[in-house]
Specification:
The complex is a heterodimer of chains A (262) and B (301). The longest helix of chain A is centred in the middle third of the chain and has 14 residues. With 262 residues, chain A is α/β, with parallel strands linked by helices. Chain B folds into two domains: 156 residues, Rossmann fold; 130 residues, Rossmann fold, CATH 3.40.50.920. In chain B, the strands form two sheets. A seven-stranded mixed sheet of chain B has the order 2-1-3-4-6-5-10, sandwiched between helices. Classes of the chains: A alpha/beta (262), B alpha/beta (301). At the A-B interface, helix 6 and helix 7 of A face helix 3 and helix 5 of B. Chain B: Pfam families: Transket_pyr (PF02779).
């Protein structure tokens, strides 16, 4: 796909990492590592506007690193053109605890930072479960677990049918969310048809009541997916996992973080 | 004459050739009939297997990606089993889709309760923004399907094995006056979809107005009010091929400013726990012409 936007220069003047719309992950247009780390650290302040706490437990931030790496290093999405038909799609399936998501969307310029303080109120577009009609950049409304992967499969099929073959569809789930049987319908089908544009990110904070004997990745592997399990706090490892080639197969990234209950 | 289900596959296959925006999602049911279309359009005829949550989830995703999805299977598995997907993956995402069921309330009488879904239309009444259509003839099914495929909204098209002997115009979602009562008419009978023929037979000797509805949601309020205004009594009977009383609320709201009575006839809530034929089930639910004559006559008499 072509770079249809002219805002790269403008974005480089902001205090956020710059998105490479060409899909080339070359680093010269990125911020240096120190600045990126500072931008990431600033997410805590954004979350504090929603939670009132300066410190957040691991559960509240279990998705934060994966979201940050996706939005700064992987996804071709543009806050100035959130409806661009050529964009990658990110579907937050695990709509619970969306403060990390909102913080990243605010940091990336999809939503104004001023929205955060009113989080969860009647007049706020930001609820405890996101609504795609209210949040710019949110591809789906979620909160009921087990819906994002099926929607992501359909989105990937739809983009393919439209000839949009370089767009990625990424959905983020939680390990407990995998309890929902709907996910297993989607995992089996996407593997069987080799839906290569699809990536499922499972943030594993070991919160599933009955666990996943043999590991989460095996659920995907046995259905023909490419899988990789990484440290969900290691940004470079996450980036490598998100960008690993997986020709002809859907891709699952299991991002392991601290246990929710420990 | 082909069946509604056959007309669905032939019409949809034709539309797939013409409209690159259209996609069909199947869950094994009717997949064989779509095989030629699937060979021509492998990326737009998608069979997910026996996975009905995914059936609706994929339809929602296709719509998010800009396609016009048609999802299809039996009503038990299209509407009841993945109902939350209908609510969220279509409604809450605010995307359009056409859901086409075949099997109705007791087409598959011999298969028992598992394959009977008389509550499907009532379920859609809990949701916002659905057009619900119950054609009574393959010609009507084709006209409604073509219009739905060309649109962008959420449409439930309920096909059945039972049909009327003749097709009637169904465009515009209005009810048609198929029997006009006199100024002294005892009331208005609304016949839905394939129950039109038994209703007409039942009321042949009664002075009533008969309205025919192939589109039940949105309900044709103006059509009902106009018909009621011309009869002696504001008494309404709705005869529906799904759960009895499903449209009573619509009639009540349409006639909110008019003292009226309403009788809802349809499929009973109680399980029959019988097999047999659709005709036997119709009779058991009091929806054959003789039963309808007695029940309508008794209410309006």
């Amino acid at each position: 796909m072509e770079n249809t936007n002219t805002n790269t220069e403008a974005m480089m003047n902001t205090n956020t990492a710059v998105l490479d719309r060409t899909g080339d992950t070359s680093r010269e247009i990125r911020e240096d590592a120190g600045t990126e780390r500072a931008s990431f650290e600033a997410l805590g302040g954004l979350m504090a506007q929603m939670t009132g706490d300066e410190k957040h437990g691991p559960a509240a931030t279990s998705t934060l690193d994966a979201l940050w790496v996706l939005y700064t290093r992987v996804l071709r999405v543009d806050p100035h053109a959130p409806e661009d038909p050529l964009r990658d799609r990110f579907l937050l399936s695990k709509g619970h605890g969306p403060m990390a998501y909102y913080a990243v969307l605010a940091a990336r310029g999809f939503i104004p930072e001023s929205w955060l303080g009113d989080f969860g109120s009647f007049d706020s577009p930001l609820g405890h479960h996101p609504d795609r009609l209210l949040v710019p950049g949110a591809e789906i409304g979620s909160g009921s677990l087990g819906h994002g992967l099926g929607l992501a499969v359909g989105t990937a099929l739809g983009l393919r049918a439209r000839g949009l073959n370089t767009q990625r569809v990424v959905t983020l789930l939680g390990d407990a969310e995998l309890d929902e049987g709907s996910n297993h319908e989607a995992i089996a089908y996407a593997g069987a048809v080799g839906l290569a544009s699809l990536t499922a990110v499972v943030v594993d904070n070991q919160s599933a009541t009955h666990g996943w004997s043999g590991g989460i990745a095996t659920r995907f592997e046995r259905e023909g997916w490419s899988t990789v399990t990484v440290d969900g706090r290691d940004h470079d490892a996450l980036e490598a996992a998100f960008t690993a080639p997986h020709p002809g197969r859907p891709h699952a990234v299991v991002a392991v973080v601290e246990p929710k209950y420990s | 004459m082909d069946t509604m289900r056959e007309r669905f596959t032939s019409t949809t296959s034709d539309l797939l050739d013409q409209d690159p925006r259209l996609a069909v999602v199947l869950a094994d049911i009717t997949a064989a009939a779509f095989a030629p279309a699937a060979a021509r359009h492998p990326e737009r005829v998608l069979n997910v297997g026996i996975r009905e949550q995914l059936l609706i989830g994929v339809a929602g995703g296709l719509a998010l990606a800009g396609l016009r999805p048609i999802a299809h299977t039996f009503p038990s598995f299209l509407v009841e089993r993945p109902f939350e997907q209908i609510k969220l993956d279509l409604g809450h995402q605010d995307v359009g889709a056409v859901l086409v069921s075949t099997g109705a309330s007791y087409d598959m009488a011999s298969l028992g309760r598992t394959h009977q879904a008389p509550g499907d239309v009532a379920l859609f009444d809990t949701l916002e923004g659905w057009t619900v259509q119950v054609p009574g003839h393959p010609e009507e099914a084709e006209a409604l399907l073509r219009a739905a495929a060309a649109g962008s909204g959420r449409v439930y098209l309920r096909l059945s094995g039972e049909t009327n002997h003749a097709a009637h115009p169904v465009e515009g979602g209005r009810m048609a006056v198929l029997k006009q009562g006199s100024d002294r008419a005892a009331g208005v009978v609304v016949a839905v979809g394939p129950l039109l023929d038994p209703v007409l037979e039942a009321v042949a000797d009664l002075d009533v107005t008969v309205l025919y509805a192939a589109t039940v949601r949105p309900f044709d309020v103006a059509g009902l009010r106009s018909a009621v205004a011309r009869t002696a009594a504001a008494d309404v009977v709705v005869v529906e091929p799904y759960l009895a009383g499903t449209s009573n609320r619509e009639v009540g709201e349409a006639l909110l400013d008019t003292p009226h009575r309403v009788l809802g006839l349809g499929v009973a809530r109680q399980e029959l726990r019988r097999y047999g034929t659709p005709a036997e089930h119709a009779a058991a639910h009091g929806l054959d012409a003789a039963s309808l004559r007695a029940r309508i006559g008794g209410f309006l008499g």
